[in-house]
Amino acid sequence: MTGLALRQMVRRLRRDARGVTALEFALAAPVMLLIMAVLLELGLAYYVQAVLTGTINAAGRDSSLQSAQTSTTTIDSEVTTRIQHVVPWATVSFSRRNYTDFTNVGQPEVFTDSNKNGQYDQGECFNDANGNGVWDADMGKTGLGGANDVVLYTVTVNYTALFGFSSMLGLPTNMTASASTILRNQPFATQTVRTVTQIC
Fold it and tell me: What is the rounded CA–CA span in Å between residue 47 and residue 61?
């Protein structure tokens, strides 16, 4: 091959645009796929949260009825089914705490702050509102309670991310969604008066 033929071949190759699209696609495809994966992951997280919020509100209303006193397993099963329609591999956990009044939700048991440090210390007197014999940072009792009691119903959903490389992007591989609702049980009977004992 002569020098002239070689120069002509190099000129022809420089002008030839065939295959450029494949090269551009090879450079752009990984970035586009990564962006799509992140958007799918975030979209799923928001969708799970939205479904969970709607489901817990409906289940909370069902829980406030007198019939719920014996059917909490059925209500929890319905919530699990709805969540697992979206993420079949999810685990769902439930928590119910009951209080006498809305103002007590999430509040600590009242204590005498002897050393004035703003926190409960072992040995300080406290009002045992839930009857378990120890001071609690949340005075609620576990369970649905009775008539007219206020119930904090919390559902937590744990599931693994759709894509295994989420941790490389700074996203967690184990996702968690949680929602709560607070409702007063129906007045199907007289509210039970709780005995509060002071323990020192």
Answer: 22
Pull the structure tokens for residue 182: 């607070």
CB atoms within 10 A of CB 98: 21
Q: What element of type H or E holds 199?
A: strand 197-199
Strands (DSSP E) contained in 17-173 are 91-99, 126-128, 141-142, 150-160
Is 18 buried (19+), middle (13-18) or exposed (0-12) by CB count in 10 A? Answer: exposed
- The answer to whether position 5 is within a domain reads no
Segments forming the whole domain that contains residue 94: 18-199
The token duo for 73 is 């397993």
Q: pLDDT tens digit string along 146-158?
A: 888 899 999 999 9
For residue 4, being part of any structural domain is answered with no
Residue 60: strand pairing partners: none
Contact 145, 151 (CB under 8 A): yes
Residue 140 resides in a domain: yes
Q: Are the C-beta atoms of 140 and 152 separated by less than 8 Å?
A: yes
Number of domains in the chain: 1
Q: For residue 104, what is the DSSP state?
A: G
pTM: 0.75
CB 97 within 8 A of CB 147: no
